[in-house]
Amino acid sequence: AQRVTQPEKLLSVFKGAPVELKCNYSYSGSPELFWYVQYSRQRLQLLLRHISRESIKGFTADLNKGETSFHLKKPFAQEEDSAMYYCALSVTGANSKLTFGKGITLSVRP
Amino acid sequence: KAGVTQTPRYLIKTRGQQVTLSCSPISGHRSVSWYQQTPGQGLQFLFEYFSETQRNKGNFPGRFSGRQFSNSRSEMNVSTLELGDSALYLCASSGRPNTGELFFGEGSRLTVL
Q1: Which residue from A3, B65, B83, B95 lies 20 to 30 Å from A65 (Cα-Cα)?
Q2: Closest Cβ–Cβ partner in B3, B48, B103 for A97
Q3: Contact call for residues B15 and B83 (beta carbons, < 8 A)
């Protein structure tokens, strides 16, 4: 069975500092990886997916199959980045479903 | 386009009762998934429907059931409620099945007393 691990529950940084939110997964096949974000009093929304290989709001994430990781990075954090971030894995096929990590709260202080 | 709409937003039930939650997907989306969110377990997959057929089911007891109508609206039902069923139930829709690109509703917060 697939699993997503986000080892930290909280990351607190100052504005302008680099951010790395860790995500590790376990799955023997070829997964699709995603990062979802939930800002205060807003609904959960997709931030980015590894297939797109794009930067959204300054965030990037590279899928490292050797280390089974999909860490989310941003070189300079902004206060508006404060939110809950979830890493998620999707497996295509008959048993596909979105498996989420427990999430991490990012707090960016002024 | 209107987003995913869930009703009711909040409800309180007592143990042993049953509850029905409703979800209207984004117009044109035919795939609907349900998730349970709790502080301890995080987000857990309940089931996915596409074109009125259940395509996937998570590891939840048979008390949890769902269905999808021809207009893609979906309902989930929990019978014989237990205290541990207290959670935020999230519905998500997507334009195609078997995708991780989901659009979530605001959720229905169920409290079981």
Answers
A1: B95
A2: B48
A3: yes
Residue found under tokens 């008390």:
B63
Cα B35 to Cα A53, B48, B53, B109, distances in angstroms: 27, 9, 17, 12
Q: Which of A97, A99, A105 to mutate to test the interface with B (most CBs of B within 10 A)?
A: A97
Exposure on the CB side of residue A106, measured as CA atoms within 13 A? 27
A24 pairs with which residues across the strands?
A: A5, A69
Q: What is the 3-state secondary structure (H, E, C) of A40-99?
A: CCCCCEEEEECCCCCCECCEEECCECCCCECCEEECCCCHHHCEEEEEEEECCCCCCCEE
For A105, counting Cβ atoms within 10 Å of its Cβ (0-12 exposed, 13-18 middle, 19+ buried), the class is middle
- Chain A residues within 8 A of B3 when measuring between CB atoms: 43
Whole-angstrom distance, CA of residue A103 vs CA of residue B61: 25
Q: Which pairing describes strands A45-49 and A32-38: parallel, antiparallel, or unpaired?
A: antiparallel
